[in-house]
Amino acid sequence: MDEGLHFKIPVYQRVEKMDVRVQKEQTEAAAASKDLQDTHSTIAVNFNILPDKAGLGLPAYRRGYNERVMRPGEPRRS
User: Fold this and answer.
1) Alpha-carbon gap, residue 27 to 29, rounded angstroms
2) DSSP secondary structure string, the chain?
3) What Rg, from alpha-carbon coordinates, does the chain have?
4) Quick one: CA dihedral 49, 24, 61, 69, positive or negative?
5) Per-residue pLDDT tens over the stretch 18-64
6) What is the pLDDT of residue 75?
């Protein structure tokens, strides 16, 4: 829903808050070059959820969507 005052049916509907601001995910990566030299890098990605599309992904991801979408192969941080 857009910003503003909205009504909900108490038992049937509920409000889920999602952060739609720009967020940063950062990870360390290591690899080997063609001539077997070690390389280390830090990779950072800035992303945000479009406010008008936030409700479309909600049923699939609920809470922790950035861990499930941005870092699907890594264990979750607590």
Assistant:
1) 7
2) --SS-----TTT--------S-EEEEEEEEEE-TTS-EEEEEEEEEE---GGGHHHHHHHH-TTHHHHHH-TTSPPP-
3) 18
4) positive
5) 777 888 888 888 888 888 899 888 988 888 878 777 777 666 666 66
6) 53
